Amino acid sequence: MEQFAPVKRSEDGQPVRYLIVDDSVFARKNLARMVESFGGQVAGEAGDGVTAISEYDRVSPDIVLMDITMPQMEGIEAAEKIVREHPQARIVMVSSVGYQENIVAALQRGARHFVQKPVKPEVLYEVIKYVMREDGVARGAGAGA
Amino acid sequence: MRMELIQPFINSADAVLAQGLHAPTTVDHLTMEEQAYRRKGVAAEVCLSGEIEGRIIFDLDPDTAVRVASRFAGAELPSSDDLVRETVCELANQIIGNAVTTLNDQGFHFRVHPPSLHTSEHGAKSSEDTEALVMCFNTEPGKVFMNVALRYHPQGVNEHAAIAG
User: Fold this and answer.
1) Rounded to whole angstroms, what are the CA distances from B4 to B9, B99, B151?
2) CA-to-CA distance for A70 and A66, rounded, in angstroms?
3) What residues are paired with B43 via a beta bridge?
4) B97 to A117: CB separation less than 8 angstroms, yes or no
5) Contact residues, chain B, for A120 at CB < 8 Å
6) Contacts of A95 in chain B (CB under 8 A)
7) Which carries the bigger pLDDT value, residue B146 or residue B77?
8) Lower CB density within 10 Å: C or N end of chain B?
9) What SS3 state is found at B60?
10) What whole-number distance in Å separates Cα of residue A23 and Cα of residue B145?
11) ipTM for the complex?
12) Looking at A119-123, B71-75, B81-85, which range is the least confident one?
């Protein structure tokens, strides 16, 4: 997999910590490989929205990558509940269902960005940089190396 | 079978497979299904409900699924039943999600249910209004079969026509 200049937290220079939420283990592993190629660390994984909420409380990640269509609780509802409790939460929706209505609903309910599957590493990388920069917490990270 | 319902799925499958496999695909064996569905390998089924309803099945033999998973991951992955099942379901999820995006942006509203493994050897026989289109995508890792049986929900069509009109 292509390697990218590491994205790090500006406050302490540590790797960005991710919570990856997807009901597909295959999709989670692919996303994990991508964020590791960005210099990040996988702090936790979840396969549904309910587990995502408890995992967020447990691992306090810098970024959540959240699928939408999942059993028990869908991603948009989980994102809304996380942001209600943690207004600073940075949630990026990652879904194959990318119609406008869905994107708007996700953004209105607290998600910071949306990436459509199949995920292109270079697209996710730019989104991660953008979302981290929004709060002035990212540093380094030029173009993909 | 209305082609305006099918075409987004063909386009999406072509795009997702080509992008994930880093190689072009070709389509052949495009047929209307007259007999009950017969599973060819490991199959995932996704159901839709709303203004458009029905189901789509993706079907790969296990060896092809492992090769597809390895291409998508960018690394050789060890063969396992879990990997095969996950690959078929996630492939279905991505292809159908992209097609649903197109249909939704055209004004159709419906719900996509999470993929489930289609374990029976035979599926239900198609009816007149849910006849299925079966196609085979030839890819470098192997053949990927897609079986689409969709119809407009009668009430949904009326509402859509009213909105469009």
Assistant:
1) 10, 11, 11
2) 10
3) B59, B118
4) yes
5) 19
6) 97
7) B146
8) C
9) strand
10) 23
11) 0.73
12) B71-75
- B38-63: average pLDDT: 88
Q: Which residues contact A34 (CB under 8 A, 6 or more apart)?
A: A1, A119, A121, A124, A125
Chain B residues with at least one Cβ partner in A under 8 Å:
16, 19-20, 69, 72-75, 82-83, 86-87, 89-90, 93-98, 100-101, 104-105, 112-114
* C-beta contacts of A110-118 below 8 A and 24+ residues apart: A110/A79, A110/A80, A110/A82, A110/A83, A110/A84, A111/A66, A111/A76, A111/A79, A111/A83, A116/B98, A116/B101, A117/A27, A117/B93, A117/B94, A117/B97, A117/B98, A118/B16, A118/B19, A118/B20, A118/B72, A118/B94
**Strand residue runs (E) in chain A:** 8-9, 17-21, 41-46, 63-66, 91-95, 113-116, 138-139
**Looking at residue A144, what is its pLDDT?**
36
Confidence at residue B99, expressed as pLDDT on a 0 to 100 scale? 92
Check: CB of residue A27 under 8 Å from CB of residue A2.
no
The two structure tokens encoding residue A126: 């730019």
B47 burial type by CB count under 10 A (0-12 exposed, 13-18 middle, 19+ buried): middle
Higher pLDDT, B50 or A54: A54
Residues listed for chain A? 145
How far apart (Å, rounded) are the C-alpha atoms in residues A59 and A74?
A: 20
Phi, psi (degrees; rounded to nearest 5) at A75:
-65, -35
